[in-house]
Design brief:
globular, 11 strands, about 280 residues, single chain, three-stranded mixed sheet, five-stranded parallel sheet
Amino acid sequence: MSRLAVRKTYKLYIGGAFPRSESGRSYAVTSPKGDFLANASRASRKDVRDAVVAARKAFPGWSGATAYNRGQILYRIAEMLEGRRAQFAEELGGGKKAALEAVDATVDRLVWYAGWSDKIASVHGTANPVAGPYFNLSSPEPTGVVGVVAPEDPLVGLISVIAPAIVTGNTCVVIASERTPLPSITLAEVLATSDLPGGVVNVLTGHQQELAPWLAAHMDVNGLDLTGVSDADLALTCEQAAAENLKRVLRPSPDEDWRAAPALTRMTRFLETKTVWHPMGV
């Protein structure tokens, strides 16, 4: 007996839940050969606002957690991603060997950042020599809510922009790859069942041209990662909008080699340095 396949419509991931877009829109996700794969929700301006609200609400608890605890949670995400290795490889498509290697590289990247969680303050902070009977200490603190336009590399690149932002205590709103959003939503399912508090990572699927300017202009977003923006005019529009409230903007090359060894640059980009004075003997 023949039957029709039930086509899945992937939802957004906002505040630890999976709502549909408030606009009710969706778009078809196809393979490189043009075969239909699934439907993905097409987020709107209202969904961007909801995601920012969720990220801001989660920020005090996440930034206030110990660095060691944040590292443990990232390691837990790596464990769960490893457990769904075959599913991620299938969604990545292409050659099976290359897809499995991409999943393995993603797991390794998560573990690498998890290991830095309680060490970045030692490397990026310092005790400053000053005149007078004082201790002068500089220590890094998270910027706040970071808006991220994910690169077209749908897994290694995605983790490479999310992990360094959240491991240092920031929360984020991510615009997933428009052409290959399925690994992003599957990652959201992993995050939802890990120990990561709801709202720390929020994933929106849809059209980059529509969503990125609203995220850049939002006054409650403190930083902007434009790694996934390949259109020069869109990048300029976002940078101009971000200047309205002096957002920190990261705009590296969209052709970045995600398989190369990671550096500390992404972690320190969305950190602020706080300097405090303490009288000696008090």
